[in-house]
Amino acid sequence: MGYFQGDNAANNGTMIRSIARTLIDQNANYNPQCRRLRCMGHVLNLSIKAFAFGDSGSSQELLDVIVVTDETMALWRKLGPGGKAPNITVYICSSVQRKQQLKRLGAETLLQAGNATRWNSGLAMIQSLLRNKEAVNFFCLNNPDVAQNSLSDADWVELESAVCILQPFLRSTLRLES
User: Fold this and answer.
1) Calpha distance 58→178 (Å, rounded)
2) Which end of the chain is less enclosed by CB atoms within 10 A, N or C?
3) Are residues 145 and 121 in the same domain?
4) Do 164 and 88 share a structural domain?
């Protein structure tokens, strides 16, 4: 029996320990801790989340938000431009009429919403906002429900910097997938 590679889910450790007990019962020398390999792509993804959100438990709660409310938008907004970006994206993407309005304002492409389970989706979201900067700015300024999330010039610069930081992680995860 070789090595097991998986994410950090506790059930993966349970499975490997169970296999180890069976192998040890058959007189095999099998150490489950040495035979468990962590998925490097998953480790990179966790690193990016820790970089973006710190180690607070509230970050995962934010990532798991499905229903957008004024309260959840306020929580995200506290994170600065990296929190305003998903607020804007989710607000626009949650309505066909809003997507059409953004397109009429000159959006070049559709916005891509990030999510908690898709690696690099936050980067794709930021890139889609940057490609549509002028239309997004105009949309936010003219829609009171999302106006508090308007991005200043400094916010846009910070998002551009985030793209530069996240690009190597994208390349790395793509290499590790193969």
Assistant:
1) 33
2) C
3) yes
4) yes
Model pTM? 0.76
Supply the pLDDT for residue 133: 97
Helix axes 133-141, 81-93, angle to 10 degrees: 80
Q: Is the pLDDT of residue 89 over 90?
A: yes
Its domain, for residue 114, covers 41-177
Q: Are residues 163 and 84 in the same domain?
A: yes
What digits encode the pLDDT tens for the residues 28-86? Answer: 888 888 888 888 887 888 777 777 766 654 555 555 555 678 888 888 888 899 889 99
> At CA 44, angle to CA 2 and CA 71, rounded to 5?
130
Query: How many angstroms separate the CA atoms of 145 and 46, rounded?
Result: 32
Same domain, 73 and 148: yes
The Cα–Cα gap between 58 and 75 comes to 9
